[in-house]
Amino acid sequence: MHKYIKVAAGVMALAALTPTAASAAPGSPEDAKVICTPDGDGPIAHLLARHLEKDIYEALKSRASVASVALYDRRTGIECAYDENRQQDSASVIKTAILGALLFQSNGPLTSEDDALARKMITVSDNTSATTLWKKLSDLTNPSAPNPVKIQEFLDAVGMSDTVLDKEGFWGLSQVTAADQLKLLKAFTDNGEHGTPVLSPEARAYALDLMNHVQSDQRWGTPAGAPQNAVVHVKNGWLRRSNNPDVDPYDRLDWKVNSMAAFTGDDYDYGLVVLTENNRVADGQPAESGWTYGINTIEGVAHAVHHDLYPAESSFRSLKPSPQSLVKQFKLQPQQPR
What we know:
Blueprint: E1 4-5, E2 35-37, H1 43-60, E3 66-73, E4 78-82, E5 88-89, H2 94-106, H3 112-123, H4 127-136, H5 149-158, E6 175-176, H6 178-189, H7 201-212, E7 231-241, E8 255-264, E9 270-279, H8 289-309, H9 323-332
Antiparallel strand pairs: 1-7, 2-4, 3-4, 3-9, 5-6, 7-8, 8-9
């Protein structure tokens, strides 16, 4: 029996510094707090870090979504984290790791075939292309359970030690963390100032270019509210777990909605990851409402982050697709993760 059910490809805005900034949000472990740390002792960076803590917390506190957040901003040296090591179903954000592994293993330009597969996998979130590349990067001694050893080699090189690849080939059920996905964004944007980059300049530029050309109705989530002049490199993912008896009761029919993006160009150099689960469908509501609930949670965090980092340049515009587009994508491939 297939492990996925009812999903669409990988995505409305929501909603003085106080100790509540360090409080835990509902649905999270009691010791989970929004923590932002500046690089250095400058008072301005510390004040900005406290604002980020408060505003990320405010964006999450009324949401039923269980969220993980990770942020870096190289301009200010600030990094933020909230329950960043919590493992969650990856859905299609794992495609960024597949892309990274493909580039890591290639040692040069991709073949025309691999280039076509990678482009479809990232820009339109094509699942068949992702499966083909997953197998290409796997040990196929047991074809029914491809072991993604070459993807693991890339994860090890980047230091993504909490990511657990699905050894049965159900890549959308790989377990990822916000902290590890942020490491991946750093690997894609690393210019060598912090040691030898894992990927070549050409490979990094290629990966960022694909993420910059994701189709318009999949550019929701973490880019919501980003500065207009920033270059946005995004990858989203979502799936709805099945109601099968072998699925953990917590996961049954739950929407997993994830978004990650890097922002470059001009003076921008930052990245944001938000992973969510517990996006439930209320009685009497359409099935895709759990998906939109997760999008709203992510975009609430994104608006807070962009506004705090760039208050004069950010907006509160929602990037959520139209209801017609949501329904179309939801019905597109009803047995596939996106």
